[in-house]
Amino acid sequence: MNNKKIMVCDDDQGILDVIQMLLETEDFTVFTEINSPDLIDNIKENSPDLLLLDLWMPLLSGDQVLKTIRQMDDIKNIPVIVLSASVDGSDIASDAGADAFVAKPFDLDDLVSKIKGLLMN
């Protein structure tokens, strides 16, 4: 499991900080991106093994970004877990092509187990 790289995209710096600290204690390498329009360049630059993506963000929403990713040959197969406080978030996430969904406020153990489950595949 060690040295797996995870990209986290959320427009809330506090959430980015919490997730980064949590995942680093699990021995993941973490990259964060607060500006969703910059996410695809950041993915191409860092080649993460998995993406954690917030659904509701200004400029480009998570589902818009995810639909774009799923159409790009070089990065379309990256596992994506969508995070959202939205009631219908899981439907939106699966429609956009997410591999998993975690509701906010999220349970840290649940988040880590979903990440590990996707990275084992």
Q: Which CATH class?
A: Alpha Beta
Order of helix and strand elements from N to C terminus:
EHEHEHEHEH
Uncertain runs are none
Mean pLDDT: 94
**Helix tally?**
5
Estimate what percentage of residues fall within beta strands: 15-25%
CATH superfamily: Response regulator
Strand adjacency order, main sheet? 2-1-3-4-5
Number of strands: 5
Modified residues (4-aspartylphosphate): 54
Organism: Chryseobacterium formosus
Keywords: Phosphoprotein, Two-component regulatory system
Domain Response regulatory: 5-119
List keywords for this structure.
phosphoprotein; Rossmann fold; CheY-like_superfamily; five-stranded parallel β-sheet; Response regulator; 5 strands; alpha/beta; about 120 residues
Description:
This protein has helices at 13-25, 39-46, 62-69, 89-96, 108-120; strands spanning 5-9, 29-33, 50-54, 80-84, 100-103. The chain is built from 5 helices and 5 strands; from the N terminus they run βαβαβαβαβα. The protein has a single domain (5-120), classed as Response regulator (Rossmann fold, 3-Layer(aba) Sandwich), CATH 3.40.50.2300. The longest helix has 13 residues, at 13-25. The chain has 121 residues and is of the alpha/beta class. The chain is globular.
Which helices and strands, and how do they pair?
Elements: E1 5-9, H1 13-25, E2 29-33, H2 39-46, E3 50-54, H3 62-69, E4 80-84, H4 89-96, E5 100-103, H5 108-120
Parallel strand pairs: 1-2, 1-3, 3-4, 4-5
Helix pairs in contact: 3-4
Can I get a quick summary?
It is built from 5 helices and 5 strands; from the N terminus they run βαβαβαβαβα. With 121 residues, the chain is α/β, with parallel strands linked by helices. α3 (62-69) runs parallel beside α4.
